[in-house]
Queue: 2 jobs
Job 1
Amino acid sequence: MKGYGQFCPVAKASEILAERWTPLVLRELLAGSHRFNDLRRGVPLMSRSLLSKRLRSLEDAGVVERRARPGLQAHEYHLTPAGEELRPLVEVLGNWGQRWVLADVEEDDLDPSLLMWDIRRGVRTEHLPEDRIVVRFDLRDVAGAHGRWWLVVGGGEIDLCLTDPGFEVGLHLRVSQRTLTRYWLGQIDWSQALADDLELVGPRWLQRSIPTWLGRSAFAGVERPSGPSG
Amino acid sequence: MKGYGQFCPVAKASEILAERWTPLVLRELLAGSHRFNDLRRGVPLMSRSLLSKRLRSLEDAGVVERRARPGLQAHEYHLTPAGEELRPLVEVLGNWGQRWVLADVEEDDLDPSLLMWDIRRGVRTEHLPEDRIVVRFDLRDVAGAHGRWWLVVGGGEIDLCLTDPGFEVGLHLRVSQRTLTRYWLGQIDWSQALADDLELVGPRWLQRSIPTWLGRSAFAGVERPSGPSG
DNA sequence: CAGTATCCGATGCGATACTG
DNA sequence: CAGTATCGCATCGGATACTG
């Protein structure tokens, strides 16, 4: 049996949406990913076959539209109007998760690639300095290739590299992935991150500017129940 | 693997909420069911073991509180503050389902018990006549025991019976379960139901009053995309 | 009534290999 | 790159039986 055998709108919506991975795929689509491998980057633990299958189900459900890319046999995945209207759902999920679930970040949920990809996507281009800056991130507790990143920003351009792009590094961050994740999520502020284990090396003015253009999660501002007025 | 391995609030919330049956269990709790078998009535196709298991998971997640009932070894299930804050989630799901999924009611989703139970719960007591009235429903296309119902309303009392309670029947409805379901869901109005296959037998004033106190789904008023301004 | 324990079949899903 | 097909296991979940 697939459905719930109920005419209730909550049940009919849940048949489509309350499946494993589906809300995360929607989150990625709503965040603006359209290509298969871009979507994959947002859900790295999901297998290709399953992502393919889910996209197909969502297409059948009228949530996703698959557009062929001319020449190639690849596609682009876009939300239909019905899919766009799922933004409130993902927001409500995220707000609730931020308020009630993320008491502490579990070790299993840390993922340096996901974090850096989010950071890249969240850079506030409107607050960037004019000139190009290379920011090096050293995630001190991450061994191997995923422990060093170069973020190239400025001049309307944002790039994230796992290998040294060669330009001079303007600012160098050394921080544990936990602290950077907690800052990203809004659990601690910049000064608390500095107090924990964030170290900055570089010109004073750059150290000052970075929190203005380094974004945070869309849910960073959600008030927690144990907070001031909760 | 159980979780999604992501620190994202959407992912953490989905680990708890985007599981099979879970949104429907939440719907029932939000609708005010607290006892195991009351919950079951709202999700009749869910097995007891699974409902038990889900309630346990929700308890572990801090969404449900299980209270022992003194003397008995039974419990009452109540939403915690975190659980109460899931009301917007269920509303968003229902709104979206109403707008985009319920194009037509599928045969598999019809369920006379669920429908009559919903109707019972939705009776607008504040619009009821003073005196007790017995309304008999004949679901003409439902064979067997679930095709005849007696709704006893009035004087602050609402009862739903599958067997003749013995009182004099004040109003008699004959209608297909599809038409009654479509009215309940807001897909057709009362006059359209009468035009389809709804027949009423009883005093004129009672025929007039019934649509004022017979409620409809909480999502009946949600505008459909193909509607006037969509 | 109000569940819990056990069994076992369905299927969900990841791994791998393959294709244009 | 952008997926799809196949295989096999692990888990989910329904049926049944059992308990206080």
Note: The first helix of chain B runs from residue 9 to 17.
Job 2
Amino acid sequence: MQHLRHLNPAQRDAVLTPSGPLLILAGAGTGKTRVITYRMAELIRRGTPAERILSVTFTNKAAKEMQHRTAELLGKNVRKKPQVSTFHALCVRILRQDITALGYPANFTIFDRGDQESAARTALRDIRVPETSLRPGDLLSRISQWKMRNQLPPEAASSAENDLDFLGATAYRRYQANLKASAAVDFDDLLLLTVQLFDEHPEILARHQARFDHVQIDEYQDTNGTQFEIVEALVRPHGNLCVVGDDDQSIYAWRGAELRHILGFASTFPGTKVIRLEDNYRCTDEILHLANTLVRNNRNRHDKQLLPHKVGVNSVRFAAFADENAEAQNVVNDINYLVQQMNVSPSDFAILFRTNEQPRVFESELRRHRLPYIVLGSMSFFDRREIRDILAYLKVLVHREDEISLLRIINVPARGIGAGTVEKIIKRAVQNGQRFWETIPDAAAAGEIPKGTLSAIQRFQELLDRYRQRLAASPKNISGLVRDLIETIDYEGEIEKQYKEPQQQLLRSAMLDELIDSIKQYEERADEPSLSEFLEESALTGRDDEDDKEEKLSQQGIKLMTLHSAKGLEFPRVYLVGLEEGLLPHKRSIDAPVESIDEERRLAYVGITRARDYLTLSRAASRMKWGKRRPSIPSRFLFEMKGMQPQSAEQEEVIIEE
DNA sequence: AAGGAGGGTTTTTTT
DNA sequence: AACCCTCCTT
């Protein structure tokens, strides 16, 4: 019990409650990650085999960290690694085993966000809905909401309240059918299909229930309906479920997260023991006071009293600048001064923002000062057109049925298969209920395909076959295959055509090198490298965090990230920027129902409580938007925070004109 | 079919 | 400002 001595009584209580339903209500900075890690280690120490405990975290990064720290706590006592995974990774493992029971092939593809968008576009086109009446993005979010409520297309159609909903439900059906035909599942399907599997096949559920004696879930406030159902099903036999969360930090409602799961946990699971962690060891009293003042404006929450354990002097600053450039310059100057003159480590700093468009200015300022920085969680890498194109090739190689990816690359780089022909083939395929490739002979016979195009199609098919054979012959040499593929299709030539500026060209082909690098890293890391596993990994993690390299880098740089990706992290010095109406709270939430503002407020709360010692809240008086400069109004949250300390806030505010 | 010009649209957050 | 779509010319 030596290791528990620096826990407070509440924390120790949480760690030492081994069974039954347990709800740990843990405010920001109360060490909840530590508690849940210790708890897992303690369970193992008391004799539960590591592999019989399932810990679910919110991100892959958190999973890795927890696995690492548990192993550290246990020392050499345990051979098996503790099971830690995200919901999505957990579901992938379950589905790879058992999805055939639902009529999907076991080697299904996982569609990432970009694939989903193409699929949505295709579905709309198939049912002849113009994108002007329903955008693919809007369709996707509707579909996601339906799926998170476990509603299938027919139900969705019958519960539709207006024409647009009905249209959406029809498109949903088409989208789902297309995905299934492509042997593909999207992110929500991973969860939804697992729920369906458990519902329809009790014997399969029983098998998975039998694998675990204990289940723990971190960040429980962000659980959505399907995730809840999966957990509830898994712990049904024993009720050994421990959840940790903070209702004030729920920031994923738009992804289906529902506060009622954490607020109603004790009534859902009778006999729940509730433990509150209210000692904040992270923030100074000033920072914590500011956060509490702000979040108190929310109504639907557990009122809690977070106790500070640190005293700060002038640890909070407010600043306003003329525009976003001045904001970036001043923030970076400030950091630069502290790094250069006061010897503060760059890794002490984080710049937090609401939207992904904001960091650009900061990046260029940081580069100008030659300060090391890292942009976290920007999905920029796998989101780049080049990367997506090549990945689409790879997906087509592995999954012949994946027509979404096929259509993306069938004429990229241009090879004489024009849009007109492709459209004709698709139309025919949809009419006859055939697959794309099956339709081609018919379409050719009907004279729909010009001779030149037909031979181009044949050449393309031969290319794919050649690479498929090669993949079958040497499945482990993925990086070599990709390099040759890029060469064969002359993607470099495509880049030169597409981008006129040499700098752009260089940048874009560097992306290709990076892709090959990340594949090489995967090859080294994996026990049994395979292209399909690489694709699965890159879909699930978005980007491939090269473990050590990235970690080392992240130790010595200034971190830039969105408020969403800052969840669960902490930094000695935080700059929360862009506190303006329309940005934080975001315009879309201002236009939406009132509760959305509460979520934006929680987002601001999360941002504030990331700061250990110093916090700077800044805004710009004007901002470029859509190529035009527009005035920005200070965020309502600033007034809410200052409501408690107006005079000091006013005094500290400085407007710096350019 | 390809490439370029011009016009319209866009920015929430992510496993 | 950056991107995508459409239309036009080659």
Note: The longest strand of chain A covers residues 611-625.
